[in-house]
């Protein structure tokens, strides 16, 4: 892990007005070494479900839970210094989220191969750590950062 | 297709404040009969990419494209009168969307089995009909509507 | 559609010993033009569930249903003359398959973009046309065929 | 973890003629407790790529790699004593497998919720531990084992 790497991804995050507008906060950002000796990005974020994110029954629109996971995915897979974009993402909903729920998303790069990578994100409810959604994202490197 | 069915789903749509806040418009909603004689829901919606949806490079956050697809998916799989929720969704991004792009999403129920169903959604750019994203959603019926 | 295209994919199919060993038969292979004017591959195959494919309760191992879908996917996305490989595949099981069931798989390329493509495959039981599984595959072109 | 649990899943494995016919060996089977205190199944298996599994270029048909992952997924999500079936599975191919390659698949239940569960499987090449494929399966409990 070098400071350069996190400078790159922190700059990317500062420019992400869409994530900021939703109140997504960056809690942690790191590059760690897996048991197999591979470097992988890791990120943790937090978002509160607001009035704008719910329907008439105060249940959050799944799209906002996806968006939180997707933002956290982008942080993790850019942390190692490569500039990557999301190629695809899959989310499974386990529990509904409600107005005022605080959600914490944790993303860990699972594997990279060539210009591709897979990152898993777990979204939990802060109060009891119950899993709200599981997300798997596929990333693609667009260019090497300098 | 009965009027009752569409009354049910239109009421659901009217209560979806989250979709309304993003400016998602419902263009079409119908129940059709497939070549195999199966009834299936169909929906078409439209959304414009706004300042709040883009990052510093005026590229839309993928979460908003997902949210558009997810809202359209919900319309299609509730159109046949059953009350369903999203169990999971997968999106593949083909082209980036930019500030002021108008996106049109078309959802068609592909198959239902027991309480489960699969719905495909294609998101296109209105100007040239280029495909921006393909989405496949899995739904689950929570109760039969009366 | 040109004869060259189908020569290429038919040669690939003749060399696929794995599909042949499972008794997968090629029923149809074509390149058609979609409503949007795009060329897309289409393929249809058939396989019978044998003793070797079932467990102790005469239910087919899902892996064989996936393999049938995957082979049909490869035929459809190579039909337009590009040499492609499977990047990923997702299968949803709707009904169990049993010993002696005859399964028919129909694959249609949904969209291509750059070197990538998405192909959908439906697997049906021949006797009553009931949908056994839905598959979505992501392909990637490795080189242009000459 | 109780012995009863593993008796149940071992009996299921002994009846799985399809996995046996492919030469899939069960290496490890266990129920462990996650960092969050949740019980989860874990399984490890091994399979060698044979002549019957390859095409004319000695590259394994992806369907056999999927089948290995799917069998290992079934072991892990039945290990905790519930009788589960695969609802869906997604595989991403990272490296081609070749004739005589020995593949090792490791499955770990990620989360369970109600009657549903998510299990991740990594398939590696035994010689160098390179990741060949990543698989995520969704399971569904059909009845509680007695």
Key traits:
homotetramer, 146 residues, alpha+beta, Thiol Ester Dehydrase, Chain A, 6-stranded antiparallel β-sheet, 3 helices, 6 strands, 24% helix, globular
Instruction: Say which CATH homologous superfamily of chain A is assigned.
Output: Hotdog Thioesterase
**How much is the average pLDDT of chain A?**
92
Low-pLDDT regions of chain A: none
| SSE succession of chain A | HHEEHEEEE
What is the CATH domain class of chain A? Alpha Beta
Largest sheet of chain A: 6 strands, antiparallel
Helix/strand-derived category of chain A reads: alpha+beta
The quaternary organization reads as homotetramer
Tally of separate helices of chain A: 3
Number of strands of chain A: 6
State the largest interface.
A-B, 33 and 33 residues
Strand numbers in spatial order across the main sheet of chain A: 1-2-4-5-6-3
CATH architectural category of chain A? Roll
Overall form of chain A: globular
Radius of gyration of chain A: 15 Å
> How much beta of chain A, percentage-wise?
over 45%
């Amino acid at each position: 892990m070098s400071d350069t790497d996190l400078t790159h991804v922190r700059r990317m995050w500062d420019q992400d007005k869409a994530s900021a507008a939703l109140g997504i906060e960056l809690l942690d950002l790191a590059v760690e070494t897996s048991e197999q000796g591979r470097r992988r990005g890791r990120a943790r974020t937090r978002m509160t479900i607001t009035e704008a994110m719910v329907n008439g029954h105060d249940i959050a629109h799944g799209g906002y839970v996806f968006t939180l996971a997707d933002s956290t995915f982008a942080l993790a897979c850019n942390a190692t210094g490569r500039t990557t974009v999301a190629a695809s993402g899959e989310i499974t909903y386990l529990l509904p989220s409600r107005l005022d729920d605080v959600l914490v998303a944790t993303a860990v790069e699972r594997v990279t191969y060539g210009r591709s990578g897979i990152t898993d994100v777990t979204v939990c409810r802060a109060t009891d750590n119950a899993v709200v959604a599981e997300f798997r994202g596929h990333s693609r490197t667009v260019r090497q950062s300098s």
